[in-house]
Design goal:
two-stranded antiparallel ribbon; mainly alpha; 66% helix; globular; 4 strands
C-alpha cells in the first residue's frame, strides 16, 4: 500500500517559503504604508476612480464606493455565519428572492452609472456614491450567503444540512449591521473610515482565498475530506499563493499600462 504523503503536504515548507518570497517582492514594489498596500490590493480589482469613492481625509479609499460596500457587506455576512457553524445549505427560497432583488438593484445602478461615460447615452437618474455604496452593500451580503455554504459543502467531512439564513429577521439583522457600517463609510469620519477601509480589503482577500481554496481542493480531488482547519492548511497556503500571484500580475500589468498607482480618471 502506498502511504506516501501527497506533494502539497511534503512540500508545505517550500510553499510557505515561496509565499514569503512573493510577499516580500510584492511589498517591496507597492506603495509604502498600510494604506498604500491596501491601495495596491484594491488596484488589482477596482477602478479606484476618486470621484466615485469616499474619502479618508484628502485621499480616496482603497476601494470605490460600490466595492467598499460590497466587501464590507460580505464581511458582515461572514461574521454572522461564523457564529452558526458549518451550515451548508443555501438560504431559504424566500431569502434567495431577496438576494435576487439586491442583485437586480446592483446591476441597474451599475449600468446607469456606467452610461455616464457616454454623454449622449440616456440615464435613469443621476448616479450618486451613496447609491453605489448601498447597492454594493446589499450585494455583498448575498455573496457571503452563497459563498460560505458552498465552501462548507465542498470542504468539510461533516457539515450541517441546514441553511444559515432561514428568516427575514436574520436578514434584517445582517442588513442593519451592514447599513450601520455603510453609514460610517458615508460619514467620511477618519476615525471610523480608516479601520473600515482596511477591513474592506481584508474581506476582499478572504473571498479570494476561500474561492481558491475550493478550486485547489476540487482540482486535487479532496472534496469533503477535512475535519478541521489544520488539515486544510496546505490548501489555504496554495490559495494564498494563487491570490498573491493574481493580485501581483494585475498590479504589474496595470502599472505598466498607466504608469501610476492612482485610480483611473474621468
Amino acid at each position: 500500500m502506498n502511504t506516501a504523503r501527497p506533494w502539497y503536504e511534503r512540500y508545505q515548507l517550500a510553499l510557505l517559503l515561496l509565499f514569503g518570497i512573493l510577499s516580500a517582492v510584492w511589498l517591496a514594489f507597492t506603495p509604502p504604508g498600510l494604506l498604500g498596500k491596501a491601495d495596491a490590493v484594491g488596484y488589482a480589482v477596482c477602478h479606484r476612480i476618486a470621484e466615485r469613492s469616499f474619502l479618508l481625509g484628502d485621499r480616496a479609499l482603497p476601494l470605490c464606493s460600490r466595492c467598499s460596500g460590497m466587501y464590507l457587506g460580505a464581511l458582515v455576512g461572514f461574521v454572522f455565519q461564523a457564529f452558526l457553524g458549518r451550515r451548508g445549505e443555501l438560504p431559504t427560497r424566500r431569502i434567495q428572492w431577496m438576494f435576487g432583488l439586491f442583485l437586480l438593484a446592483f446591476a441597474i445602478d451599475g449600468i446607469n452609472s456606467y452610461l455616464t461615460f457616454f454623454p449622449q447615452a440616456p440615464g435613469l437618474y443621476v448616479p450618486q456614491n451613496g447609491l453605489r455604496l448601498l447597492t454594493g452593500t446589499l450585494l455583498g451580503t448575498g455573496i457571503a450567503a452563497y459563498l460560505m455554504p458552498t465552501f462548507h459543502q465542498i470542504i468539510w467531512q461533516q457539515w450541517q444540512d441546514r441553511p444559515a439564513l432561514t428568516s427575514f429577521r436574520q436578514l434584517f439583522l445582517i442588513l442593519a449591521a451592514a447599513g450601520l457600517i455603510a453609514a460610517a463609510i458615508a460619514s467620511e469620519n477618519p476615525i471610523l473610515v480608516y479601520p473600515l477601509a482596511l477591513l474592506s480589503v481584508l474581506s476582499l482577500l478572504t473571498i479570494l482565498v476561500l474561492a481558491y481554496t475550493m478550486i485547489w481542493v476540487m482540482l486535487l480531488k479532496r472534496e469533503n475530506s477535512f475535519e478541521g482547519w489544520k488539515q486544510l492548511q496546505p490548501f489555504l497556503l496554495l490559495a494564498m499563493i494563487t491570490t498573491l500571484v493574481q493580485i501581483g500580475l494585475i498590479d504589474a500589468g496595470r502599472f505598466l499600462l498607466t504608469g501610476t498607482w492612482a485610480g483611473f480618471t474621468l
